[in-house]
Amino acid sequence: MTYELKDWLNSINFTKEDLSEDIKSYPPYIINRCLSGHIDCVMYANEMNMHHQLDKDMQYSFYLNTLRKRKRFSPWLRKDKVTDLECIKSYYGYSNEKASQALKILTQEQLTFIKQRLDIGGKK
Q: Which residue blocks in the chain are alpha helix, DSSP H?
């Protein structure tokens, strides 16, 4: 049986059931990333990042036997999408960084003006 990410996380965090018979499907990087979002797991995730060369079985056993049993839920960290960024980039010819800085200082009226100037008509 192959386990999914949620099965591995539930095993480490809550059930403490040993799933090591299918260790080949264990994703160490993703598990480290998920656990690093919790204040009580940050140091353990950092330790596993420093010792990334360890076998998957050793990393899984470390988390399984070290972390306390607790329900840990956190949303996956994602970058926010900025809708007006592309308009500013094409209007001024800015890079992503410069456009995000400009977006902070432009008013809504200025953004509307830029969008009107870039509107070439036709179907989208």
A: 5-10, 28-35, 42-50, 56-66, 85-92, 96-105, 108-118
